[in-house]
Amino acid sequence: MLAEEIIIRPVITEKSNDEMQSGKYTFEVNKKATKVDIAKAVEKLFEVKVLNVNTMTVKGKTKRVRYKEGKTPDWKKAIVTIDLNPSEKTYLGKGGKAVKVSKKYKDSIDEFMGA
User: Fold this and answer.
1) Overall domain count for the chain
2) Which residues contact residue 109 at a Cβ distance below 8 angstroms, ignoring those fewer than 6 apart?
């Protein structure tokens, strides 16, 4: 699956807005996507470092229109925790020399609220 197919839309509620201060962002995701797929898609789309992904399936509600009863579809929600203080990572390469990872990460998702 492509990253654009995995992340459907952000979920914007009072609770999700409060959690953004601590680096947790909530998304509606494809029902077939795994936690690893979600983490890679968020890192690719928003250029942030993902620390943790929690997923849950939200059951659809029963709705009634006049005499007919129906049910809204089930959907999958993912709460993604990002690294708020990304630092340069170093590791030992060939010959015991320290090598720095040159990838730059952002510390927030600016596109989340439409900014």
Assistant:
1) 1
2) 25, 46, 48, 82
